[in-house]
Amino acid sequence: EAGVAQSPRYKIIEKRQSVAFWCNPISGHATLYWYQQILGQGPKLLIQFQNNGVVDDSQLPKDRFSAERLKGVDSTLKIQPAKLEDSAVYLCANSDSRSGNTIYFGEGSWLTVV
Amino acid sequence: QQQVKQSPQSLIVQKGGISIINCAYENTAFDYFPWYQQFPGKGPALLIAIRPDVSEKKEGRFTISFNKSAKQFSLHIMDSQPGDSATYFCAASKTGGYNKLIFGAGTRLAVHP
């Protein structure tokens, strides 16, 4: 079973620029998450999709962050405009009831805002 | 009520020793408590998990101890090895809903040879 694929792995942008991250989840996994992990901290949930519908985006800074999940499969996370404090690893994860609700993470997209 | 508090922040153990990491939670609705292991440059990977109907779960050298009344759980790594050097995160969720994991802040473990 292929894992969670994310790209790009690394990105450096200047503040006020925009960036987009892409996630291809494990085939058939209905639930997809985007987590933000700031250096030295635990992952923090930004947004959760069930199929292609949003079930939790309470911690997503909606003035600058947006996310979508097309046809319940791939997902993109966009930041526009970026701030210095957005420097973090953006982790895509997914789970499915058939796998006992275990959450599987990708390797993350590392963002540095300068 | 959504917090998961983890300690210590960092831990140094000699090879062959026991590593112990502790977590405490507040929300009594949580019913799933996993531990994740993260190596540098990698995403977190599930190590072991427990549900509150048991007080202990062991998988190889890794054991979770769970104290429901105290709302605490801990990870014990027996016979710690240099390859165990990583950051460990405890987490908690309520699986009846949308399975949202709340993570602790992490413990950086270094096992010295």
Description of the structure:
Chain A is an all-beta fold. Chain A is built from no helices and eleven strands. Chain A has strands at residues 5-7, 10-13, 19-24, 31-37, 44-50, 53-56, 65-69, 75-79, 88-95, 104-105, 109-113. In chain A, the strands form two sheets. In chain A, strands 2, 4, 5, 6, 9, 10 and 11 form a seven-stranded mixed β-sheet that branches. Chain A is globular. The N and C termini of chain B lie far apart (40 Å). In chain B, 32% of the residues are buried.
Low-confidence stretches of chain A: none
Shape summary of chain B: globular
Give the helices and strands of chain B as they follow along the chain: EEEEEEEEEEE
Output mean pLDDT of chain A. Answer: 92
Give the total of beta strands of chain A. 11
Strand percent estimate of chain B: over 45%
- Quaternary structure annotation: heterodimer
Structure, briefly:
The complex is a heterodimer of chains A (114) and B (113). Chain A has 114 residues and is mainly β. Chain A is built from no helices and 11 strands.
Task: Describe the secondary structure blueprint for this structure.
The complex is a heterodimer of chains A (114) and B (113).
Chain A: E1 5-7, E2 10-13, E3 19-24, E4 31-37, E5 44-50, E6 53-56, E7 65-69, E8 75-79, E9 88-95, E10 104-105, E11 109-113
Parallel strand pairs in A: 2-11
Antiparallel strand pairs in A: 1-3, 3-8, 4-5, 4-9, 5-6, 7-8, 9-10, 9-11
Chain B: E1 4-7, E2 10-14, E3 19-25, E4 33-38, E5 45-50, E6 56-59, E7 62-67, E8 72-77, E9 86-92, E10 102-103, E11 107-112
Essential attributes:
heterodimer, A: about 110 residues, mainly beta, 7-stranded mixed beta sheet, B: about 110 residues, 6-stranded mixed beta sheet, about 50% strand
